[in-house]
Amino acid sequence: MKILIVSDSHGDQDTLNQILLQNPRMDLYLHAGDSLQNPYTLKPFISVKGNCDYDINLLENIKLKTPYGYLYMQHKPYFSSNVLNDDNIKIFISGHTHIRQFKKIDNKYFINPGSIAFSRDPLGPSYCILTIDKNNVDCQFINLSI
Predict the structure, then answer these.
(1) Which of 17, 57, 83, 128 pairs as cysteine with 113 (C-beta 3.0–4.6 A)?
(2) Would strands 28-31 and 61-65 be described as parallel, antiparallel, or unpaired?
């Protein structure tokens, strides 16, 4: 399974369109919030609501099944103990910090794709592509030219 993940686009539809054109064959497209758009203009991205999003149609979080286990996505990187202790959830995705992250703790993955707009990452704006099978989660960060 291949999943493209972006976050914190802050209204930059041109960059989202460019990312889609460069990655046409993903199984899923996710947006970790602060798109400043509604779910209809974000398609094919499935998005959660960020702290700068005001559309009432955006969900606070989503939970999706993957070959490795469930993926849980919300905007802020502060997960409740109920979510963290759910043994079925193996992949945690967040945005908000505008800094990329990929770490594994006790067979659970914590991923932030960085930001495609207003990056705070020393490596610049980014998004990521996850490749998931039943035994592993691989994350490839893609740097955007500034």
Answers:
(1) 128
(2) unpaired
